Amino acid sequence: MDLGNQSQSMVASALKKAVDKLVAEGSQGLITDIHLQPIQSVGELLVFDDEDRQLARAEVKEWVDYEAQTFYSEVELQLRSQVVTLKKKGILDKLPLMKPYSFVLVDEERETVADLLLVDDDTMLLSDGLLKGLDKELDEFLKKLLEE
Fold it and tell me: 37 has which bridge partners?
């Protein structure tokens, strides 16, 4: 699923608006996550803080017509790209949040689908490729260790 230029611009604008709102409020307290909630049925992206306050929203028409079962994995790639771009441009450096904090993709029930970006003193991008197979390797290591 490819997003058109207008949708990409709307998503980028919503993320920047959310950051600007947090900067303006000087939110220093308990916020540790910024939740990005795509709503496929209406083609909308909602951005919330930990206290469930809506920070921004964007319209993404392409999501409404997407029928494959891979909706969240497709959206994850799109949103991760947008958040990483904000990080590279230094826009996230303005956030007055106590580190570590993260950008999290959530579903319509606000359950975590994926961590898009973790911001700490050193930034670590979270991706499936990094952790893929780790459980299996750890299980094999533990089994081998216990056999000895």
Answer: 46
- Left (φ > 0), alpha (ψ -120 to 50) or beta: where does 133 sit? left
In contact, 97 and 28? CB cutoff 8 Å: yes
d(CA 29, CA 49) in angstroms, rounded, equals: 11
The per-residue pLDDT for 132 is 54
What DSSP state is assigned to residue 40? T
Residues in the chain: 148
What was the pLDDT predicted at 122? 60
**Do the Cβ atoms of 18 and 12 come closer than 8 Å?**
no
> pTM of the predicted model, to two decimals?
0.77
What are the residue ranges in the chain where pLDDT is below 70?
1, 27-30, 122-135
Max Cα–Cα distance, the chain, nearest Å: 60
Residue 95, φ and ψ in degrees, nearest 5: -65, 130
Host H or E run for residue 109: none
pLDDT at 133: 59
Backbone angles phi, psi at 42, to 5 degrees: -115, 0
Query: Could you tell me if 104 and 112 are in contact, meaning their C-beta atoms sit under 8 angstroms apart?
Result: yes
Give residue 37's Cα distance to chain centre: 9
